[in-house]
Amino acid sequence: MSDAIALARASVARHSKSFSLAARLLPSSSRDTARIVYAWCRRADDAVDLTPVENTALAAETLLAELDDLYAGRPAADPIVAAFGEVVAQASIPKAYPRELLLGLRMDAEQVRYEKWDELLLYCYRVAGTVGLMMCHVLGVRDARALQHGAHLGMAMQLTNIARDVAEDWQLGRLYVPDEVLSRHGAPRLATHLGGELPEFALPALGRGVRHLLDEAASFYASADQGLGALAGQSAWAVATASAVYADIGRELQRRSFAVDAGRAHVSTARKLYLAARSGVRVLCRASGAARFSAVRLATPLRFPHDILPV
Fold this sequence. Notes:
The chain is mostly helical. It has helices at 2-15, 17-25, 28-49, 56-71, 79-91, 96-110, 117-138, 144-164, 166-171, 179-184, 203-226, 233-255, 269-286. α3 runs antiparallel to α7, α7 crosses α8 (144-164) and α8 (144-164) runs parallel beside α12.
């Protein structure tokens, strides 16, 4: 397990400065466990994303078979997979959550553009909402009402990622802003122009599409905020910080008038530290009046969309 923890710490430090900061704020009892979940997700994402396109479907199927072995109790050679198996057992993570994540990665292998908003929400739930659900289990949350808020935070973050990375994804031949959104803003079938430089005529519609994504993300962030009362103080601080840092990416995009060709938006280290301090104060001030959730162990995992999307 110690080897896996070292690998997980290195993975977080290398790939996500925002998650790295939030993980440091977690209680010591759950800090490395959360990093192992992140490292397993990162490993799965790399296994699909860094594989030649003709082999990505096979890579996703291999990961699904590996997950079957893990939940069947078969030993894993990879230390991150083995450590994730221990976390799954300790935190009672339903198989449905990591399986849905892998199905989301398979969507990336098979689908590089989206027609409908509901399709994009399914993708966001699979690749990020499930991470929020797994982290809820790691942090001791079991109540269905609070779990929904955890899924919403993951989905909000994914919508923010998509909004931030439109230009980068375009060059990779991917377009996550749904066609029904772009059509509403005067650019139907924009995906037919994918690849290479962003065409000038597409910029206004893409900018308005990014604004739409961030408007929707704001409602998911607001829902996530309502779930902080389900967490102990230090865990609530860490989650509130992660939420604030990601939401700030959206505010930076807004400051740029949602221009998708203005370079990659980021949050400076100084700004992250300010947001962490502000989140800590906010959690302390809200502690006495925060909503409380009973610790009810779920017999079945939440279902998308029935238990996940707001009514």
